[in-house]
Design brief:
The chain has 135 residues and is an alpha+beta fold. It contains three helices and four strands. A four-stranded antiparallel beta sheet has the order 2-3-1-4, covered by helices on one side.
Length: 135
């Protein structure tokens, strides 16, 4: 009976170690998971040029800090149904956790961006859609 209890306890310990090891492996693999985002910004009247400057600074800063992949990167100008301008930028964070743990330089730029945008048609001034690159 005593051996049966020891074997059962050993089995439980092994199962716990296996679970912990699997969780560690999953967590370590997640740190390299890139995240592609589509960012839409709706500038306040007269702020389009300044907003484009801030967005260019965001990209340059994120590249300098190694936070984003070089490609894909595209920024598009467009007009909504009322003829008001908006911008769309598509890029990939090097790691899915970066936006939630952005360095102060990036957070400062985000604050500038938010100051320059306005909500329209029930949509926020700065809208982010997360995705993955299609193959």
């Amino acid at each position: 009976m005593r051996n049966h209890i020891n074997c059962r306890a050993a089995g439980i310990v092994l199962a716990l170690l296996f679970s912990a090891g699997s969780a560690i492996l999953l967590a370590s693999n997640r740190t390299d998971l890139p995240e592609t985002v589509i960012v839409t910004v709706r500038p306040k009247p007269g702020a389009e040029t300044e907003l484009e400057r801030v967005m260019a600074n965001h990209w340059a800063t994120a590249r300098r800090l190694g936070l984003v992949l070089a490609e894909p990167h595209v920024r598009i100008r467009a007009k909504d149904g009322e003829g008001k301008p908006y911008l769309v930028e598509i890029f990939t964070w090097r790691d899915v956790d970066i936006p939630d743990n952005a360095p102060p330089d990036i957070q400062t730029i985000w604050a500038e961006m938010n100051r320059l945008v306005e909500a329209r048609h029930g949509r926020p001034g700065l809208e982010i859609v997360q995705g993955t690159l299609a193959q």
